[in-house]
Amino acid sequence: MNTNHFTGLALALAAFAAQAQESPDGLGGAIESQELQGCLRLEDPQERLTCYDTTLGRTPTGVSADELLPERRAGPQTVEAEPPPPEPSAMAKRWELVAQTDRGPFVITPHRPTYLLPLSYNASPNDEVYQSAGVLEDGLDRTELKYQVSFKTKVWPNLFSRQGDLWVAYTQQSFWQAYNRDDSSPFRETNYEPEVIYAYNTDYDLFGLRGRVFTLGLNHMSNGRSDPLSRSWNRVIAGAVFDNGDLAVNAKLWWRLPESDEDDDNPGITDYYGNGEVWTFYKDGPHTYGLMLRSNFDVSGDLRGAVQLDYSHPLWGGMKGYVQLFHGYGDGLVDYDHVSTRASLGLMLTDWM
Fold it and tell me: What is the pTM of this model?
């Protein structure tokens, strides 16, 4: 250590000791210790002494005003913290597309909405199909209870690629004639829908929307009834999920796996239920709006399908008030070829967003 370094260090230690004695707790100069170490690293003797004086609260002599600026002192540098990562979108959370939303395999998560609609009014019930089967011969109550339960779980992360995951999902939708006491309040229709889905994480822009995930799945849908009310079909479904802030779109196309005429419980179902659908969701503060359009795309012939409008609003806890309006074909598998117009009111437990 040269003479200048030694002299500077001695002065610093003497000043530090004097400050400590003046402090009531003997630690008055401890705060400046790191800054004094910074002064020691200065090569120029005058700058070093000026740094000591400034750090200890003294006014150095023979020093320009510029040299007293804070940026000329050699104290410890403040490192700015990195900003937190942006909040994942609703679709990124739903499909666990980013690290902070990944729950790992075999954790139950929402798939489609789960809801309970105690008041579900069908303006055009399909009495004929039940009366011809010899059940509910007095006709259906127009007001019934409708509910849906839907969930999924990841079973094989990073399948084929770090971007791909294999999921299994299950959705059950029931229509309960809860207020039809004359017929002992039967469940008139329950649709069971298990599916296997391969989801591939994507990232591209399309018309201002961000492509989040591409899905390819095998879907089975049936009502578990015996003939003549038995309905079932199997589909291969391809889909894509997009979002942009509070707007999300889920588009699907499907192809029905062929069945023999002897085994086909619902011939021509795609002519009525359709070949694809688009769900659009928009969140405006506490309000969530949904629109579903389903079609057989037969623009030159009999164009059929369905439309559904959704609205939900938080009530308490995780519970939401829910309004659902439906018109078209496919309000349940038994009604795949019957036009229904339904208005429902109730509670939603898990939403799309």
Answer: 0.75
